[in-house]
């Protein structure tokens, strides 16, 4: 009973230190230890926490380890392994949402060009770029797709959409000088839309952005899909 009371008091002190100073108030093994208390309620988990840090070479290694590898560590059960994996995935989702939200929602051609220019700050601002969006039209990523003199492949555009798990996209062809539409660009825009629609990815627009003006394939009637 005394041992259980000591463990309970130790856990309480860990929680109080975390509430006061966040992770800065804890050693790495204590952060793992505190996590494990929620999956292993009545045991001293400090030895397991230290064992995990040795096995996976630090806190980062522990949180990046697969649940099945964590389960191989002596004293760590399935619930504990799943808890550590859940913390990693929850943190990953939070950081992804935070990054996405900082770019905002794209609701117009001007929004798309603004996001692109902000993403390209300090780099080359000419060529064809794809903005990949989630179901809320928030930007998941911006990719350079090349352009003249090399032809752009609709397949490459779609491949990048898969890598971002995008639900839709906007293409922006950034040019120096005046924005002008060509038959070649119309063919490219409609080709990408056809390829994307076959796998239920929406092409919101293909924008030709000059230095002082822009043209929208949606407004020009090139694209058939619905916003």
Write the CATH architecture name of the largest domain: 3-Layer(aba) Sandwich
Record field, number of beta strands: 5
Structural class: alpha+beta
The portion of residues assigned to helices is 40-55%
How would a textbook summarize the main sheet?
A: 5 strands, mixed
Whole-number total of structural domains: 2
Please give the radius of gyration in angstroms.
25 Å
CATH class placement of the largest domain: Alpha Beta
Task: Give your account of this protein's structure.
The chain is α+β, with helices and mostly antiparallel strands and 227 residues long. It has 2 domains: 2-102, no CATH class; 104-220, Cytidine Deaminase, domain 2 (3-Layer(aba) Sandwich). 51% of the residues lie in helices and 14% in strands. The protein is built from 10 helices and 5 strands; from the N terminus they run H-H-H-H-H-H-H-E-E-H-E-H-E-E-H. A 5-stranded mixed β-sheet has the order 2-1-3-4-5, with helices on both faces. Strand 3, helix 9 and strand 4 form a beta-alpha-beta unit. Helix 2 (28-36) crosses helix 3 (46-56). The protein starts with a helix and ends in a 7-residue tail after the last helix. The model has no long low-confidence stretch (mean pLDDT 83).
């Amino acid at each position: 009973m005394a041992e259980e009371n000591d463990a309970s008091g130790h856990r309480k002190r860990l929680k109080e230190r975390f509430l006061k100073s966040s992770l800065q108030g804890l050693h790495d093994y204590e952060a793992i230890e505190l996590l494990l208390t929620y999956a292993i309620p009545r045991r001293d988990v400090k030895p397991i926490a230290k064992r995990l840090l040795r096995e996976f070479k630090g806190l980062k290694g522990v949180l990046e380890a697969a649940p099945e590898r964590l389960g191989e560590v002596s004293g760590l059960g399935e619930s504990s392994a799943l808890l550590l994996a859940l913390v990693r995935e929850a943190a990953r989702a939070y950081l992804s949402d935070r990054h996405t939200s900082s770019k905002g929602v794209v609701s117009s051609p001007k929004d798309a060009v603004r996001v692109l220019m902000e993403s390209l700050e300090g780099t080359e601002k000419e060529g064809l770029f794809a903005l990949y969006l989630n179901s809320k039209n928030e930007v998941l990523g911006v990719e350079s797709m090349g352009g003249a003199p090399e032809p752009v492949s609709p397949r490459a555009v779609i491949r990048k959409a898969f890598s971002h798990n995008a639900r839709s996209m906007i293409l922006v062809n950034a040019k120096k000088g005046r924005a002008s539409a060509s038959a070649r660009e119309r063919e490219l825009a409609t080709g990408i839309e056809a390829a994307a629609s076959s796998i239920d990815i929406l092409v919101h627009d293909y924008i030709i952005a000059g230095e002082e003006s822009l043209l929208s394939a949606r407004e020009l009637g090139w694209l058939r899909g619905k916003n």
